[in-house]
Design brief:
CATH architecture of the largest domain: Alpha-Beta Complex
Helix content: 25-40%
Distance between the termini: 21 Å
Order of helices and strands: EEEHEHEHHEEHEEEEHHEEHHHH
Shape: globular
Number of helices: 11
CATH superfamily of the largest domain: Spore Coat Polysaccharide Biosynthesis Protein SpsA, Chain A
Structural class: alpha/beta
Radius of gyration: 19 Å
Strand order of the largest sheet: 5-4-1-6-11-8-12
Length: 298
Amino acid sequence: MKGIILAGGSGTRLRPLTGAVSKQILPVYDKPMIYYPLSVLMLAGIRDILVISSKDHSDSFRTLLGDGSRLGLNICYAEQDAPRGIAEALVIGADFIDGDQVALVLGDNIFHGPRFSLLLDDALRRLDGAWLFGYRVRDPQRFGIGEIDAEGRLLSLQEKPAQPRSDIAVTGLYLYDADVVGIAKNLSPSARGELEITDVNLAYLRQGRAHLTELGRGFAWLDMGTHDSLLQAAQYVQLVQERQGVWIACVEEVALNRGFITPEQCRRLGEEMAGTAYGSYLADVADRHRPLLTARAV
Protein backbone atom coordinates (compact mmCIF):
# COMPACT_ATOMS: atom_id res chain seq x y z
CA MET A 1 0.00 0.00 0.00
CA LYS A 2 1.08 3.57 -0.76
CA GLY A 3 0.53 6.59 1.47
CA ILE A 4 -0.21 10.23 0.66
CA ILE A 5 -0.04 13.21 3.01
CA LEU A 6 -1.93 16.23 1.71
CA ALA A 7 -0.03 19.20 3.11
CA GLY A 8 -1.15 21.83 0.63
CA GLY A 9 -3.33 24.88 1.06
CA SER A 10 -2.39 28.36 2.19
CA GLY A 11 -3.33 28.11 5.87
CA THR A 12 -5.27 31.37 5.76
CA ARG A 13 -7.04 30.69 9.07
CA LEU A 14 -3.66 30.53 10.82
CA ARG A 15 -2.22 33.81 9.56
CA PRO A 16 0.05 35.54 10.40
CA LEU A 17 1.72 32.28 11.55
CA THR A 18 1.56 30.93 8.00
CA GLY A 19 2.71 34.09 6.25
CA ALA A 20 6.10 32.53 5.44
CA VAL A 21 5.84 28.89 6.52
CA SER A 22 3.56 25.97 5.72
CA LYS A 23 0.94 25.17 8.33
CA GLN A 24 2.17 21.57 8.42
CA ILE A 25 5.66 22.73 9.45
CA LEU A 26 4.35 24.61 12.49
CA PRO A 27 5.23 23.08 15.88
CA VAL A 28 2.58 21.12 17.75
CA TYR A 29 4.19 21.10 21.16
CA ASP A 30 7.54 19.39 20.42
CA LYS A 31 7.21 18.20 16.82
CA PRO A 32 6.35 19.60 13.40
CA MET A 33 2.69 19.14 12.57
CA ILE A 34 3.44 16.80 9.67
CA TYR A 35 4.95 14.23 12.05
CA TYR A 36 1.46 13.41 13.29
CA PRO A 37 -0.07 12.28 9.96
CA LEU A 38 3.26 10.74 8.95
CA SER A 39 3.18 8.56 12.06
CA VAL A 40 -0.33 7.36 11.13
CA LEU A 41 0.87 6.05 7.77
CA MET A 42 3.86 4.43 9.44
CA LEU A 43 1.64 2.77 12.06
CA ALA A 44 -0.23 1.22 9.13
CA GLY A 45 3.05 -0.28 7.94
CA ILE A 46 3.31 2.04 4.94
CA ARG A 47 6.81 2.91 3.77
CA ASP A 48 6.24 4.51 0.33
CA ILE A 49 4.89 7.99 1.00
CA LEU A 50 4.09 11.01 -1.18
CA VAL A 51 3.96 14.47 0.40
CA ILE A 52 1.86 16.94 -1.59
CA SER A 53 2.41 20.60 -0.79
CA SER A 54 2.34 23.99 -2.44
CA LYS A 55 5.29 24.99 -4.59
CA ASP A 56 6.34 27.66 -2.08
CA HIS A 57 6.74 25.13 0.74
CA SER A 58 8.03 22.04 -1.03
CA ASP A 59 11.67 22.76 -0.16
CA SER A 60 10.83 23.03 3.55
CA PHE A 61 9.40 19.52 3.59
CA ARG A 62 12.38 18.16 1.67
CA THR A 63 14.73 19.73 4.21
CA LEU A 64 12.75 18.33 7.15
CA LEU A 65 12.06 14.80 5.89
CA GLY A 66 14.55 14.19 3.08
CA ASP A 67 14.02 10.99 1.16
CA GLY A 68 12.82 9.20 4.30
CA SER A 69 15.68 6.71 4.36
CA ARG A 70 16.68 7.70 7.92
CA LEU A 71 13.32 6.28 9.02
CA GLY A 72 13.38 3.32 6.66
CA LEU A 73 10.93 5.06 4.35
CA ASN A 74 10.80 6.15 0.73
CA ILE A 75 9.41 9.70 0.68
CA CYS A 76 8.82 11.62 -2.52
CA TYR A 77 7.17 14.94 -3.26
CA ALA A 78 4.63 16.56 -5.54
CA GLU A 79 3.18 20.04 -5.78
CA GLN A 80 -0.38 21.34 -5.81
CA ASP A 81 -0.34 24.79 -7.43
CA ALA A 82 -3.67 25.75 -5.84
CA PRO A 83 -6.03 24.06 -3.37
CA ARG A 84 -8.65 22.30 -5.48
CA GLY A 85 -10.09 19.78 -3.08
CA ILE A 86 -8.85 16.78 -1.13
CA ALA A 87 -9.63 14.35 -3.94
CA GLU A 88 -7.20 16.14 -6.25
CA ALA A 89 -4.42 14.53 -4.20
CA LEU A 90 -5.44 11.20 -5.74
CA VAL A 91 -5.15 12.64 -9.25
CA ILE A 92 -1.81 14.33 -8.52
CA GLY A 93 -0.55 11.09 -7.01
CA ALA A 94 -1.85 8.78 -9.75
CA ASP A 95 1.59 7.80 -11.07
CA PHE A 96 2.86 7.33 -7.52
CA ILE A 97 -0.10 5.09 -6.62
CA ASP A 98 0.46 3.09 -9.82
CA GLY A 99 -2.46 0.69 -9.39
CA ASP A 100 -1.80 0.00 -5.70
CA GLN A 101 -4.01 0.53 -2.67
CA VAL A 102 -3.54 3.92 -1.03
CA ALA A 103 -4.01 5.63 2.33
CA LEU A 104 -4.68 9.38 2.18
CA VAL A 105 -4.29 11.46 5.34
CA LEU A 106 -4.70 15.18 5.84
CA GLY A 107 -1.61 16.99 7.02
CA ASP A 108 -3.32 18.83 9.88
CA ASN A 109 -4.96 15.90 11.70
CA ILE A 110 -3.89 14.12 14.90
CA PHE A 111 -5.07 10.58 15.62
CA HIS A 112 -4.19 9.09 18.98
CA GLY A 113 -5.72 6.26 20.93
CA PRO A 114 -5.44 2.71 22.23
CA ARG A 115 -4.70 -0.09 19.76
CA PHE A 116 -4.74 2.29 16.80
CA SER A 117 -2.25 0.20 14.83
CA LEU A 118 -4.51 -2.83 15.32
CA LEU A 119 -7.48 -0.90 13.95
CA LEU A 120 -5.41 0.08 10.93
CA ASP A 121 -4.16 -3.46 10.38
CA ASP A 122 -7.72 -4.79 10.54
CA ALA A 123 -9.00 -2.23 8.05
CA LEU A 124 -6.15 -2.92 5.62
CA ARG A 125 -6.72 -6.67 5.86
CA ARG A 126 -10.41 -6.27 5.01
CA LEU A 127 -10.10 -3.42 2.52
CA ASP A 128 -12.26 -3.86 -0.59
CA GLY A 129 -13.32 -0.43 -1.75
CA ALA A 130 -13.17 2.51 0.69
CA TRP A 131 -12.51 2.38 4.41
CA LEU A 132 -13.14 5.50 6.47
CA PHE A 133 -12.69 6.37 10.14
CA GLY A 134 -15.37 8.15 12.15
CA TYR A 135 -15.47 10.11 15.38
CA ARG A 136 -18.54 11.14 17.39
CA VAL A 137 -18.95 14.93 17.63
CA ARG A 138 -21.31 17.28 19.46
CA ASP A 139 -21.94 19.49 16.41
CA PRO A 140 -22.44 17.18 13.40
CA GLN A 141 -23.78 20.05 11.27
CA ARG A 142 -20.14 21.18 10.84
CA PHE A 143 -18.81 17.91 9.40
CA GLY A 144 -19.21 15.23 6.81
CA ILE A 145 -21.40 12.70 8.62
CA GLY A 146 -21.53 8.94 8.09
CA GLU A 147 -24.32 6.55 9.01
CA ILE A 148 -23.32 2.91 9.45
CA ASP A 149 -24.93 -0.45 10.21
CA ALA A 150 -23.85 -2.94 12.88
CA GLU A 151 -21.13 -4.36 10.58
CA GLY A 152 -19.65 -0.94 9.82
CA ARG A 153 -21.02 -0.72 6.28
CA LEU A 154 -21.62 2.88 5.26
CA LEU A 155 -25.35 3.49 4.73
CA SER A 156 -25.34 7.23 4.03
CA LEU A 157 -22.95 10.14 3.82
CA GLN A 158 -24.00 13.75 4.32
CA GLU A 159 -21.87 16.87 4.00
CA LYS A 160 -22.61 19.38 6.79
CA PRO A 161 -26.25 18.28 7.06
CA ALA A 162 -28.93 20.49 8.59
CA GLN A 163 -30.60 17.33 9.92
CA PRO A 164 -27.82 14.79 10.48
CA ARG A 165 -28.66 11.09 10.52
CA SER A 166 -25.89 10.38 13.03
CA ASP A 167 -23.20 12.16 15.02
CA ILE A 168 -20.27 10.28 13.46
CA ALA A 169 -17.94 12.70 11.65
CA VAL A 170 -15.74 11.37 8.86
CA THR A 171 -12.14 12.13 9.78
CA GLY A 172 -9.20 13.03 7.55
CA LEU A 173 -7.93 9.47 7.03
CA TYR A 174 -9.08 7.46 4.02
CA LEU A 175 -8.10 3.99 2.77
CA TYR A 176 -8.86 3.03 -0.83
CA ASP A 177 -8.41 0.15 -3.21
CA ALA A 178 -6.83 0.46 -6.65
CA ASP A 179 -10.06 1.77 -8.24
CA VAL A 180 -9.81 5.14 -6.52
CA VAL A 181 -7.67 6.92 -9.10
CA GLY A 182 -10.17 6.17 -11.85
CA ILE A 183 -13.00 7.37 -9.64
CA ALA A 184 -11.18 10.60 -8.76
CA LYS A 185 -10.26 11.34 -12.37
CA ASN A 186 -13.90 11.03 -13.43
CA LEU A 187 -15.27 13.42 -10.81
CA SER A 188 -16.93 16.65 -11.82
CA PRO A 189 -15.69 19.69 -9.90
CA SER A 190 -18.03 21.13 -7.29
CA ALA A 191 -19.52 24.61 -7.44
CA ARG A 192 -16.32 25.77 -5.74
CA GLY A 193 -14.24 24.22 -8.52
CA GLU A 194 -12.91 21.47 -6.24
CA LEU A 195 -12.71 17.69 -6.45
CA GLU A 196 -14.57 16.65 -3.30
CA ILE A 197 -13.46 13.63 -1.30
CA THR A 198 -17.11 13.12 -0.31
CA ASP A 199 -17.90 12.41 -3.98
CA VAL A 200 -15.20 9.71 -4.02
CA ASN A 201 -16.68 8.12 -0.92
CA LEU A 202 -20.21 8.35 -2.33
CA ALA A 203 -19.06 6.48 -5.45
CA TYR A 204 -17.93 3.59 -3.27
CA LEU A 205 -21.11 3.86 -1.19
CA ARG A 206 -23.24 3.41 -4.31
CA GLN A 207 -21.23 0.29 -5.11
CA GLY A 208 -21.84 -1.08 -1.61
CA ARG A 209 -18.08 -1.07 -0.95
CA ALA A 210 -17.68 1.61 1.72
CA HIS A 211 -17.00 0.87 5.40
CA LEU A 212 -16.31 3.01 8.42
CA THR A 213 -14.55 2.21 11.68
CA GLU A 214 -15.68 4.32 14.62
CA LEU A 215 -12.86 5.62 16.78
CA GLY A 216 -14.46 5.12 20.15
CA ARG A 217 -14.11 6.16 23.77
CA GLY A 218 -10.60 7.08 24.81
CA PHE A 219 -9.57 8.08 21.29
CA ALA A 220 -8.58 11.61 20.24
CA TRP A 221 -9.03 13.10 16.80
CA LEU A 222 -7.84 16.69 16.50
CA ASP A 223 -7.95 19.05 13.51
CA MET A 224 -5.42 21.88 13.72
CA GLY A 225 -6.93 24.43 11.36
CA THR A 226 -7.31 27.40 13.71
CA HIS A 227 -5.22 29.12 16.36
CA ASP A 228 -7.39 27.72 19.14
CA SER A 229 -7.34 24.15 17.82
CA LEU A 230 -3.57 24.35 17.26
CA LEU A 231 -3.07 25.40 20.88
CA GLN A 232 -5.47 22.73 22.15
CA ALA A 233 -3.61 20.05 20.17
CA ALA A 234 -0.29 21.14 21.66
CA GLN A 235 -1.76 21.08 25.16
CA TYR A 236 -3.16 17.59 24.57
CA VAL A 237 0.21 16.26 23.38
CA GLN A 238 2.03 17.88 26.30
CA LEU A 239 -0.41 16.48 28.88
CA VAL A 240 -0.37 12.91 27.54
CA GLN A 241 3.40 12.80 27.22
CA GLU A 242 4.03 14.22 30.68
CA ARG A 243 1.47 11.95 32.36
CA GLN A 244 2.23 8.72 30.50
CA GLY A 245 5.87 9.13 29.57
CA VAL A 246 5.08 7.87 26.06
CA TRP A 247 5.43 10.34 23.22
CA ILE A 248 2.79 10.87 20.55
CA ALA A 249 3.87 10.70 16.89
CA CYS A 250 7.55 10.07 17.60
CA VAL A 251 8.27 8.89 14.06
CA GLU A 252 11.60 7.33 15.02
CA GLU A 253 9.92 5.20 17.68
CA VAL A 254 7.19 4.14 15.25
CA ALA A 255 9.88 3.22 12.70
CA LEU A 256 11.63 1.11 15.33
CA ASN A 257 8.47 -0.64 16.49
CA ARG A 258 7.45 -1.38 12.92
CA GLY A 259 10.87 -2.82 12.12
CA PHE A 260 11.79 -0.08 9.63
CA ILE A 261 14.98 0.74 11.57
CA THR A 262 17.10 -1.05 14.17
CA PRO A 263 17.63 -0.02 17.81
CA GLU A 264 21.15 1.04 16.85
CA GLN A 265 19.82 3.32 14.13
CA CYS A 266 17.26 4.74 16.54
CA ARG A 267 19.96 5.48 19.09
CA ARG A 268 22.09 7.25 16.45
CA LEU A 269 19.11 9.43 15.53
CA GLY A 270 18.80 10.34 19.19
CA GLU A 271 22.49 11.13 19.44
CA GLU A 272 22.08 13.65 16.62
CA MET A 273 19.79 15.56 19.00
CA ALA A 274 21.98 15.17 22.08
CA GLY A 275 21.11 17.56 24.86
CA THR A 276 17.40 17.63 24.00
CA ALA A 277 14.50 15.83 25.64
CA TYR A 278 13.65 14.33 22.25
CA GLY A 279 17.13 12.88 21.82
CA SER A 280 17.11 11.44 25.35
CA TYR A 281 13.73 9.84 24.70
CA LEU A 282 15.00 8.15 21.54
CA ALA A 283 18.02 6.76 23.40
CA ASP A 284 15.73 5.36 26.07
CA VAL A 285 13.39 3.88 23.47
CA ALA A 286 16.30 2.18 21.73
CA ASP A 287 17.59 0.72 24.99
CA ARG A 288 14.16 -0.59 26.04
CA HIS A 289 13.14 -1.97 22.65
CA ARG A 290 11.91 -5.51 22.39
CA PRO A 291 10.80 -7.24 19.17
CA LEU A 292 7.15 -7.48 18.13
CA LEU A 293 5.87 -4.32 19.79
CA THR A 294 3.98 -3.26 16.68
CA ALA A 295 0.62 -2.97 18.43
CA ARG A 296 1.71 -0.16 20.69
CA ALA A 297 -0.20 3.10 20.12
CA VAL A 298 2.18 6.00 19.64
